[in-house]
Amino acid sequence: MEKQTAALMAAMIRYDRGDTPRIQHFVKVHDLAAAIGVLEGIDDETQHILETAAVLHDIGIHVSEEKYGSSSGHYQEIEGPAEAEKLLRELGGYSEAEIERVKYLIGHHHTYKDIDGMDYQILVEADFLVNLYESSSDAHAIAAARKNIFRTVTGLQFLDDMFAAREK
User: Which class for 82: exposed (0-12), middle (13-18), buried (19 or more C-beta within 10 A)?
Assistant: First the structure.
């Protein structure tokens, strides 16, 4: 893991201080996204953006709960980009283009149509892998996600291997 990503993870753990389930969630999404990105052979810049977005993808939850009384994905997409930008600017070392792409990914990570870019596709797949597990999804939900969401060879393999027992 790059030092910058480790520092971001530390900052996000502090941001979510005391909210262990959410911290565990973004760590798992990050790790799966990082692995999928490497195994799919994406370029270094796209990998860096992907990993940054994966750490921050749900940063809008707390604001959404305070503002709307809901952690709905729609509200996270509204509130997350500004929160992410604040944290990235506080940490420093991110280019304007990186910040804008990360904000875009956070602002769309619950939108599953018109996915543009491997970073976006992989982020969605990694989040699905974790959410399917955390919500104890049944075989029908897993099959629907496989058909409608997953596109990368690695993501499909991870999905199939993780949930093999549920498909039988």
Answer: middle
